[in-house]
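Technical appendix A lists one of the benchmark inputs used to test multi-chain prediction within the project. The record comprises two sequence entries:
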Amino acid sequence: MTKSEDKHVFRFGAKTADGTGSMKNLLGGKGASLAGATLLGLPVPPGFTISTEVCNLYLKTGGLSDKIKAEIKEALSFVEKTMGMKFGDSKNPLLVSARSGARQSMPGMMETVLNVGLTTSTIPGLIETTKNERFVYDSYRRLIMMYSDVVMEKAAGIEPEEGHGIRQQMERLLEAKKKKAGCLTDTCLNVAQLKELCKEFKDAVKKTLGKEFPDEPYEQLWGAVGAVFKSWGGARAVAYRRIENIPDEWGTACTVQAMVFGNMGDHSATGVAFSRNPATGENKFYGEFLINAQGEDVVAGTRTPNAMNEESKNDQSKDLPTLEEVMPEMYNQLVAIRDTLEKDTKDMIDLEFTIQENKLFLVQHRVGKRTATAALNIAMDMLHTKFIDEPTAILRVAPEQLGQLLYPILDPEAEAKATPIARGLPAGPGGAVGQIVFTSEAAVEWNRKGKHIVLIREETSPEDIEGMRAANAVLTARGGMTSHAALVTRGWGKCCIVGASGLDINTYEKTVTIDGQLYKEGDYLTLNGTQGLVYSGELPMIEATENPRLKEFMGLIDKYRRLGVRANADTPEDAKVALAFGAEGIGLFRTEHMFYGEGSDEPLFLLRKMILSNTRAERLHALKELAPYVKQDIKATLRVMDGHPVTIRLLDPPLHEFVPQSKFGQEKLAVALGISAEDVHKRGEQIHENNPMMGHRGVRLGITYPEIYEMQVRAILEAGAELLKEGKEVHLEIMIPVTIGAAELKTMQLIVEKVYDEVKNEVGADIPYMYGTMIEIPRACMRAGDMAQSAQFFSFGTNDLSQMSFGFSRDDIDSFLPDYLDLHILRNDPFVSIDKRGVGQLMEIAIERGRKTRPDIKLGVCGEHGGDPRSVEFFHEIGLDYVSCSPYRLPIARLAAAQAAIKEKYSK
Amino acid sequence: MTKSEDKHVFRFGAKTADGTGSMKNLLGGKGASLAGATLLGLPVPPGFTISTEVCNLYLKTGGLSDKIKAEIKEALSFVEKTMGMKFGDSKNPLLVSARSGARQSMPGMMETVLNVGLTTSTIPGLIETTKNERFVYDSYRRLIMMYSDVVMEKAAGIEPEEGHGIRQQMERLLEAKKKKAGCLTDTCLNVAQLKELCKEFKDAVKKTLGKEFPDEPYEQLWGAVGAVFKSWGGARAVAYRRIENIPDEWGTACTVQAMVFGNMGDHSATGVAFSRNPATGENKFYGEFLINAQGEDVVAGTRTPNAMNEESKNDQSKDLPTLEEVMPEMYNQLVAIRDTLEKDTKDMIDLEFTIQENKLFLVQHRVGKRTATAALNIAMDMLHTKFIDEPTAILRVAPEQLGQLLYPILDPEAEAKATPIARGLPAGPGGAVGQIVFTSEAAVEWNRKGKHIVLIREETSPEDIEGMRAANAVLTARGGMTSHAALVTRGWGKCCIVGASGLDINTYEKTVTIDGQLYKEGDYLTLNGTQGLVYSGELPMIEATENPRLKEFMGLIDKYRRLGVRANADTPEDAKVALAFGAEGIGLFRTEHMFYGEGSDEPLFLLRKMILSNTRAERLHALKELAPYVKQDIKATLRVMDGHPVTIRLLDPPLHEFVPQSKFGQEKLAVALGISAEDVHKRGEQIHENNPMMGHRGVRLGITYPEIYEMQVRAILEAGAELLKEGKEVHLEIMIPVTIGAAELKTMQLIVEKVYDEVKNEVGADIPYMYGTMIEIPRACMRAGDMAQSAQFFSFGTNDLSQMSFGFSRDDIDSFLPDYLDLHILRNDPFVSIDKRGVGQLMEIAIERGRKTRPDIKLGVCGEHGGDPRSVEFFHEIGLDYVSCSPYRLPIARLAAAQAAIKEKYSK
């Protein structure tokens, strides 16, 4: 092969190719894969790829050199020869497409022009060869529309006023034509109408853009190629590259390829196929096709497609003939293609094909999308047949897909036949069937009777907690993905749909009207919480977690993983779930959790008493009363975690969160405390804050009220000591939140050491513990070196660290975050996926400095990012020791951690 | 001299010394300065310094080696010989002190023991030589108190329960003794009572600490030396070192020195002196002394001290004989010492001396503290006599002192004679005299009549603005240093005292009662706003800024300064003041300022209309109406700044700040807008935020409502274009606030460039402008490299950057910041002085990354830190181009910048 510097155009077709499947840098993804498939001997429509280097040259010089034009013409004549047609010929004209293709996929960012070569002089020949005048004029009007927009307007740098772009003008003309013809779809226009439309289009081009629509094939070709190259420098593509960190100098390649048509009569067809069943993963060729049709027709659904073979039949296609039956030769060729491609990619692939007059063309192929179930089954099948190895199998299931496999789900087959009666936001995953109730009390009561319940509420509040726990699923008419119902159920891994606005709830009558139908208490509904769909009646469920293949798959993961996994858990119940899902410890036990929810009345009252104390003496007294509750609470979870480390965070939220806000609540507290409601209110006002997120919380409470932290530390150590006597193993990790530097840590360490000595003397036993801190304030990242002098571990609180680093209050971002995502100013919601380039860099600085001081410092993450696969991969890369997340996210974190380790190994 | 490894004890005395004045590392500050003075031939009481290396050894081994003890004994015999006395001698006993002294001053952090060597066997001898039994027993009880606390309790590691420390017990015994004697001060106890007390003290030592008080001189000495060394490892000293970044291995030296006494009879005396007048700076020796007295007596003020010479006489001492008269020989020796020390230090010094039986001792000397006026005069005098050079003169006035020289002040002499009638917080600097009024309206009216006014209010609110402006000073009964009155007047550089709780104001009667005296409207009061003092009647004032020496001094500064200085100014008035104070441009023009204060009614109404718009069309309409006001506002300030750069920040605060909060205000707006008050309220609620500091503000508004920024940019460019036509010079700098990364900047840049092209076409002129951003979010520091692709300048918004980096809401820190400062967790309020080790590091990262992308990027600061001297020094060090601060802080910033440049040059 000639050297790339000398060669700019790479042909493919007739089983030969100048390039290969691995030359993505020069040929782009599309050009390389077409070359690869051609070299595999597959019947790809011939074409050629103009290299990315030409793109750079083009953007510098503003045109194609004569030398390159000559190369292109030479390649085109190869295509003509291969196809037995001729570009611009009046008898048997060859049409081509021009498509962009960069080294890395940039979906929708760049341009494509189809049907290039169609002119007044080639139209008659194409009508003659296709016997389909309507098709030809429809293709022509598409060419005019696409070309005038992409080439003549955009690539020429014309910026029309809003609503006056050439494409919009043409769309209005098309609408008007359809209206006049009294029809709704494009396909209803007849030849005469299409001819009129083409004329109107060309007139509009002349009038708006000031020149004729090009009627010369090569003029069209040069324009199309240039437009593809220019689109690399378009505003959207540039914005996308900035976000994705793609260098400008990569450039795009331009692939010019012969167009083939499946609508040239009864010996022509078009179809799509998967090498295996994409829903179930079953190892059967699966697909559908249409005789005498274009690719768009299969997708549009205007005609019912035929099944490829018996296995692919469904209700609609069950009586239609299969490809295997009507074109057995073509079918056999397709099966061979399928086998070749699976062997080559070692994965399930999907492919598009066109049969043009009994000649089969592979138009496109790529790795096929699949359901979570299919992903698991295909991976395990391929592993069992030794088609792929273990690491590859592990990489084949996306962590987020795994999430879908962990919950009971609706039987997919049954669901496919049912019609949803309402839709909402998919707040809690999995599926559920139950009888509807309308109050928390009813949910508790019906649950006691052993019934399955769907709790329906306008929206939920903390008073509904017990009912929500008793219910199998929760359905609300209002609220978003961060509403109370969504947050609570997601934490529990419970099926939930929120914001289902189609619900008209009458709590008094205990009825709900959905889509005009009245449902009464006790009626059955079925929920798909993964997709936010509500069905009437009872649909069958499957327990996906019982899937033996899932168990086998999860068994593979842990030996590849370096990153440890822990759970954020505050109760014995959560701790048990965490262990069942593979937790190696608790990474975040929130001591304040005991003041929320069931059984919290007495401790909460004592806490409030402490908060409202006017003197240190009063506060000490209240703390003394509170201490036994705190110890009991911690001990219960420590007992479950026997032998596993538990990181216990001292009091974190600002105190005013615990002062009752309602007048009634304040009065109740006042009576109980024997002070005036006015006093309660006043004290609440005193501790009110303008920006509570950045206020008096975490260690700042420990500094101003050391007695609070002292009580907590004593409770922790005493709980540990008592369990040691019971013969349990305890690994305590005492964690200080919201620290800004070393001095706070040192100050609190003195308290911890003092209490430790006291408790040790009292119980006469060593209680193993570590001392450490959250890293959740940007300044702490800068001071991590000093902080590691006291801290034996850092746990990155990525939620708060993201808030402070961005200056984003999570409670307040709804007003602008959607715009930031839409405009590609941010790639992801930084509270979902860690912001590697900002927050991540702060973490890396903290890690480097912390390790410098204390090389064996333990490093973890306990923000919600710990359960996000992309974030987990990053945490692996920057060398954390563990991530901690919600118990239900643990399998996802484990898989993400294993994949990160595998990718790292393979990339080296 | 022997090598330091071999030598541990360094003698000084009799004009020789083993060490020198520059050996601070080995001898500590105190040991080195005593050695230095001795070598200058000055009569320092002899002694020796045990080196810092011994401290490290001591702390490692827990004691002094025999070799070192022998060295100490040898040095002690040198002291004995020099003094002609003997340690532990029953006839003529030598007493010594043991003091700590580290390389760097750590005030109050470490221990001192005086009178070491006083025992039952040496007491009689000392009584004999001093002829003062009372003095001896008073010294003895002081030794017991100090020694048992410092050596026997603290250094022994005994931690008594609160209130049960040995010192506290002794203090209670002392109180009881005084009560019994019916007297109030220590000095009234007679010999018998002091003897009893010494016995009681020794009993307490035995009972509490379980051993006898040591009665052997060497035992006392070893104990005292050990305690000094151990105090290096004390908790407070360790905390201090942590904060000040002082390495533990520095250690402290221990200086043991002969005690000398000025109370041995009429040929003894003690005094303090300044080489020049510390109040005025006049070049006259200045001091006072007492015959037959101890140093404490001079300070205590129980006897009226005599003046040193005629020049030092004051009202009290004017009829007493001077030292020059009664001890001319001693006086002449002192004058010689003064000259020697000034010559050596090239600065004004203060010194303490003791005359023991006609023998003069220099006990201590150091650079003398002085008033701002004295600092300026001494610096300029010494410069004029070529005693020091220009850079040294510039370093001799502290920037904060300069602040005191910039305002009219009360005549210090007159003030010294007057008694304040009330005290408050010194909120606005300088002095003022005026007639009191009680309402804003009255202030405006009286001011129109040409009267000088002091406006008295309970506290001020925005409605008082015009009255505050009209008044010469503001005095409030309530509010702290961040109250409305304090903030507003400080910005104006206007005299103000807040929180003067002694004021009983009756606004209805137009009277105020202060200290029992009734003052009516029109009565005169005088305020010292620099110290928070209120005087009755009219005190004379001096215009310090007219001081020709100040002008000369300010003239020196600018040629040494590298850092540019700009002002934060939003009005033509502020801009004029800024230019007068030396501003080289405006570093922060807040576009939102026009919506506050006088004349803001119409623009504020239009802004509110815009905010309450429901649709983009409505918003565009309101913006169109608002635009001319915005342009006018910007143009007025640009005109004043003719030729200087002006950085204009686009809209920054969250919109809800502008929605009226009161029901009345909402109703008024509703009527004006023709919508319901309910709608106004609702819209206000919609944009309410939980943490507004981290909410929808700055560029986030520009992203969601690009039309707002577009209007502002157009107004800026049109204002510039119009001024260009008027023949003015404009240097616009358009600044985007609250950015988190490059994408926002790029997005806004497209708007700016679009509007620029449009305006340029309309006016047909190039309008010079730069485009840049605030760096005020931690993430922006990480992304500065990318941001510099668009930004031609960065202006660090250190207020917000400090808030986000610390996670401190400035509005909410009162609940914990005082504790953080008290406990030395923070060295300074980070909103006053930049936090170099956290926020400063983030800035350094941003600078490095920004410069890497754009080497000539302009870098400034526009937070309030720009006017803080310590921060300015840091900004110089990290290489910023300019600082911007309140106009009244400009001279301070200029001086701080010059000093930073000089220090940098000298340190190289």
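The longest strand of chain B covers residues 359-367. Chain B touches chain A through 53 residues (CB under 8 Å). Comparable benchmark entries are summarised in Table A2.
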